[in-house]
Each structure stands twice: as C-alpha cells, then as structure tokens.
Amino acid sequence: MSFIRGLSIAMGANIILFVLSFLNNKIIYISLSQKDNGIYFLFMRFSLFLNLIFGEWLRLTNINIAGRNKSLNPVLSSNLITYNGLIGIILVFSVIYYPTVFKPFFPGLPEHYYFAIVIVGLCIIIRNSFQSLLLVNNRMIRLGITIVIWGLIFLLLDFFFLVLCDLGLKFVIYALFISSAIAALWAFVSSVTCDGYSLKPSLKVFGMSGKLGIRAALAIVGMFLMINIHIFAIEPLAGKLGDGLVTVGIFSVCFRIFQLLNKGSDITGSILYANVARNTEKTGYRLTMLVCRNIILFSLLFSICIGLLGKPLIIIISKSTYLSAYVPLLLMLPGIIALNTGTVLNSSYWGRGYPFKVILPSYGAALIGLALDIILIPKIGASGAALSFSIMSLIWFIFIVEIFRRDSGFHLTEIIIPHYSDVVYIMSKLKGKLKKV
Predict the structure, then answer these.
(1) Residue 315: which residues within 8 A CB-CB, separation 6 or more?
(2) Is the residue at 384 inside a domain?
(3) End of a domain among 143, 173, 201?
(4) Which carries the bigger pLDDT value, residue 273 or residue 233?
(5) What pLDDT, in 10s, does the model give residues 15-74?
(6) N or C: which end of the chain has fewer CB within 10 A?
(7) Do the domain assignments include residue 317?
(8) Band of residue 394 on the pLDDT scale cut at 50, 70, 90
(9) CA 252, CA 28: separation in Å to the nearest integer?
(10) In this structure, is residue 206 part of a structural domain?
C-alpha cells in the first residue's frame, strides 16, 4: 500500500475519531465542573505518561524490527503480551501496597486515582503496541477500525453515564477504562489474525528491541515532558491565583485545540516513521522535506482561522465559562505551528534509530519550559503556561530544523517555505477525489 493511500485511510479514521472525541469532550465539559475537568485532564495525561515510560520504547522499536523483517511479527506479538503481563503485575502490586511511590509522578491528583491510572495506562500500552504492528504491516483498514472503535465506545458510554444518568467524574473514568480495554483486545485480535502469534516469547528478539529501546524510551519521554511539562506545573504553581485544578481545566481547552491541530502532523509523522524505517536514507530525507512544507502550510492556515474564530470555537468545544482560555490560546499558536512541524522532522530521525542529537534538544526545551513556567504561571496563570509553551517550542524547532538541514543538504527555504507547486499538487489531488465522489 502506498504512502498516500495509507495516509488517506489513517486520516479518514482519525477524522472520524476527531468527531467522536469532539462530541465526547463536549459532553464532559458540559457535565463536569471546571475542577473535575482538570482532574480528568490530568488523569488522561498521567495515563499516557505511564504508557510512554513503559510501553512506547517497545512499540517503536518493534516498528523498526518488523519494518526490516516481517517474519518476526508472531514473536513480536508474543513478546508484547509477555512484557505487558509482567509490567502489569509489578505496577498493580506497587500501586496497591506502595501507592506513595507514585505520588511524585502524579502531582495534583488524589491518591485514590492511582490504581485506575495504572489500569488504563496498561490498556493503552497494549492497544498502541498492536496498532503499530498493524501500521508497519500496512493493515491500514484494520488499523482504522481499531482507532474508531475506541472513540465510539467511549462516546456511547459517556453519553449514557453523563447525559442519561448524570453520574459524574467517576463514571467518566469507568467509561475510559472499558473503551480502552475493548480497543486493546480488538487491536490484539486484528493483528494476530493477520500476522500470526507465537506461543513462545523470544529473549533474542526482545534483545533486538533492547538495543534501540533505551534510545526510544529517552526520545519518547523527552518529547512527552517537553509538551506536557506545563500541564504538570500548573496545579502546584497556580495556587496563589486560586484553585490550581480550575486553571488546569481552563488550559485543557487550549491543549485540546492544540491536539486538534497536531493530529494531522502526528498521523503523518507516524506513517512517515514506518516508511523511513523501510526505505533508504536519501528517500526518507526527501519525503520528510516535502511533508514538512505541507504541514507548515496547513498549520499556518488553521492557526489563522483559530485566531479569528477562537472564541466561538472555545464555546463549541466546551462552554462559555471557558472563554478565559482565548488569550492563552492565541499565545499558544506560534508554538503549535513550531511543534507540529518539528514533530514531522523528529519522526524521520526516529525511523533511523533515535540519534541522540535529536533526543537531547527535547530535554533542554523541557527544562527551559519548566523555568519559564516557574516565572510566568504564578503571575498570569494559564496565559503564562501558554507563553512558556510557545517560547520553548520555537527554540526546540530551531534546533531540529538546523539538524535536519545539515544532514539532508536541503536549503532552509526548501524545508520550511511552502512552494506554489505544493498547493497545485494538493488542489489537483483534492479535485481528483471530488470527481470520484
């Protein structure tokens, strides 16, 4: 399956997921208080953080391994289940008997949420791991179905719990767990029925993952901290301005709009990652350069629209009580453009083995972001977090672009300036699609 066709299927599935998530988030914002929305938002981020620490390194290295040797798919599936089982036992035992160990990693959340974070995090690890095997093996239709199933079940459960029964935050978390568990099972079945499953895990193959695993783990954690450091910093630092969880709830609206704009580059980057893992370095550089220009073009256009229509958009996504998120949203737009584009460049390098030259800048940016948060959040709240986000993202983007420019040999204008030929190509593709419709 070609890059363009695979991208089209993945984009289509994620557009459906976006609509489902939009409706779901709208229900959550309307039904929960700002404080409960802040708790739910932190719960989601910490579940993803758990996934990134314990699952992403194996998921990404499996893409590299499967991209080069498809015959190892059954063993990779077996290793994934074995690894997740062992990690699950350790984490569940720890959170039941030693919950205080998790407190430094989950700031701002009450202790009784820790067990649920671990369970949801484990479901996300399994779901994402098998989705990646579907991706690298070009099972794009099955991948698309898996993506949609999670969003659909989550929406239906939240509609039942919140709209019909008016049950509150606890049942939103139940809905998240149930939908994540079903999606994880579906992803597993979809993958192994296509590409097989071995009853014997292989330490040798697991060792192949381990060679790249440390770099992959460092790369993923660095990016996650860079993007999420502001979320984690708000509750402890915004206490002087009032309830920190309310400030988190306000910032969550800006972050969800960022996720909307980031979705296209995230999907493109994931598919680009898989393609780079299968192709030569020269082909990977050229494909990355072309994708990068188009991501900048679309990010600019969408950012202009959001700048003009920000207040109505905030009301559509949440409700009028969150209009104070408008100024932070405007402050985030430059950083959103920078981060969207840099993510694509980053994915190209991840497909070639996670060199430290692209790993370290994310940690440097996270430290800069934290320093700015400490200065700005106590003074201007969510706007301070948004301003810190943009400054940090722009600094990181400059580093990543310069690294790519030196390695690829392309001129700076070829990488970041959209060309007229790009617009013509995109319009011709759109016209072709419309004619088929």
Answers:
(1) 322, 323
(2) yes
(3) 201
(4) 233
(5) 888 889 889 999 999 999 988 998 999 999 899 888 888 887 778 777 777 777 778 888
(6) C
(7) yes
(8) very high
(9) 12
(10) no
Query: Do 219 and 197 reside in the same domain of the chain?
Result: no
Q: Which residue, chain included where needed, has tokens 């939103």?
A: 172
- Asked if residue 207 belongs to a domain, the reply is no
Provide the token pair at 217.
């783990």
The residue segments making up the domain with residue 414 are: 212-437
